[in-house]
Amino acid sequence: MDQIIEYIRNNKQRFIDELIEFLKIPSLSAQSRHKADCERAADFVRKQFSQLGLDAQLHPTAGNPIVTARHTSPENKTTVLIYGHYDVQPPEPLDLWTSPPFEPRIEGDNIIARGATDDKGQLFTHIKAVEAHLKTNARLPVNLIFVIEGEEEVAGVHVSEFIRTHRDDLKCDVAVVSDSSQYAPNMPALCYGLRGICAQEIRVQGPKQDLHSGSFGGAVANPVNVLCQMIAQLKDESGKIRIPGFYDDVLPLEQWEREAFAALPWDDEAFRQSLGVKALHGEETYTSIERKWARPTLDVNGIFGGYNGEGAKTIIPAWGGAKITMRLVPNQNPQTISRLFRDFIRKITPPTVEVSFIDHSSCGPVIVKRSAPFVAEALESLRRGFGAEPVFIREGGSIPIVLTIQQELNVHALLLGFGLPDDNAHGPNEKLSLTDFERGIRTSATFFHLCAQK
Question: Are 140 and 163 part of one and the same domain?
């Protein structure tokens, strides 16, 4: 490993130069005019693997291609699967960027570009870890499978199909996903839990068309008013969700988790100020970290209907709508929550309107036990790679592919994030620390080494 670490140190600038070329490709999966750029990014990744002697292939899909790469050695017993994505979020609004999003710029210790941390930079750490092993030892200590997709930012439907239909080819002992972050600078983290999601849209239908509010007001129910009254019944003043059965399957926080969260450096007042809110809010008896990592939520993402143009228009709208997402914690099932939500909405819908629903995205929550295989190796890799003691964290968001990997391949997916919480993923001036980029490569290379010792 000493030779490998030295190789990483000596080649850091070249690694950065190659990452810059990768970041220049505007591989925006959400915009069809960039389909050729997505294909170019996929081919860039394929060539990286091929140049290292891995068996690399492009797999066409109805969307963007999936890249796989494989290294198999008869003497290796452990197989590690690495997942990542080469597509990026749209950079708009462009006027908030301090430099063009696809013209990578180094400022101090950071490289600034769309995709720097989500996920090109983090994905690249694993590719360079493979190179470091092969260039120093001419071999890898483990069998490796890479699955790199180009539609993660638009729900990743095709990679889920690919994993389901290639289960036998993708058999592995552990999976690694680097698409998250450390807890804080110099505080590497193993993320062991993700919240799931259940996204619903409600439509409340009133009259067959918009009505004059003077001529009909008082005689006809206003569907937007009704919608607001219904939404107000979903939660009580303390933030507790009032849907019957909603909390029945919630996995309670264990004592060690509450103690571990409490030991993390956290300042509620600094958090409040950073958000620009007058006060924090949430379930009583839970801390802010517990609320945002390990408790279920229900949030209205938007309300629409009626007239929203300039000036006044005195109408009773024909309909009103709302988009609502519920973040789910371990043991909650999105299909069950969807049914409970709809049943409750129907129950509180007055007879003056009709209600209908649209299902949007959903995925289940994820939890990885501390005793799971390769967790100890992951922690030790972070410890050596970053030169700091790692911590256990959860993440309040959802990464659907993690659950797909765990369910379809029957392995644990370890979330080794090398970014930072303020890297502005999805926002303007996205960045990645070059120090952490190198640390990520060291961590990945060390993980391969330690997995081989099991």
Answer: yes
> What is the share, in percent, of the chain residues with pLDDT greater than 70?
100
Tell me the per-residue pLDDT of 163-207, one tens digit each, with 9 for 90 and over. Answer: 999 999 999 999 999 999 999 999 999 999 999 999 999 999 999
pTM (2 d.p.):
0.91
Q: Show the domain range for 173.
A: 2-194+365-451
Does residue 12 sit in the same domain as residue 140? yes
How many structural domains is the chain composed of?
Answer: 2
Same domain, 232 and 179: no
User: What average pLDDT does this structure show over 399-408?
Assistant: 94
Average pLDDT over the chain reads: 96
Q: What is the 3-state secondary structure (H, E, C) of the chain?
A: CHHHHHHHHHCHHHHHHHHHHHHCCCCECCCHHHHHHHHHHHHHHHHHHHHCCCEEEEECCCCCCEEEEEECCCCCCCEEEEEEECCECCCCCHHHCCCCCCCCEEECCEEECCCCCCCHHHHHHHHHHHHHHHHHHCCCCCEEEEEEECCHHHCCHHHHHHHHHCCHHHCCCEEEECCCECCECCECEEEEEECEEEEEEEEEECCCCCEEHHHHECCECCHHHHHHHHHHCCECCCCCECCCCCCCCCCCCCHHHHHHHHHCCCCHHHHHHHHCCCCCCCCCCCCHHHHHHHCCCCEEEEEECCCCCCCCCCEECCEEEEEEEEEECCCCCHHHHHHHHHHHHHHHCCCCCEEEEEEEEEECCEECCCCCCCHHHHHHHHHHHHCCCCEEEEECCCCHHHHHHHHHHCCCEEEECCECCCCCCCCCCCEEEHHHHHHHHHHHHHHHHHHCCC
Tens-digit pLDDT profile for residues 305-356: 999 999 999 999 999 999 999 999 999 999 999 999 999 999 999 999 999 9
Confidence at residue 7, expressed as pLDDT on a 0 to 100 scale = 98
Query: Is 273 inside any structural domain?
Result: no
One domain for residues 411 and 340: no
For residues 347 and 446, membership in a common domain is answered with no
If asked whether residues 31 and 140 sit together in one domain, one would say: yes
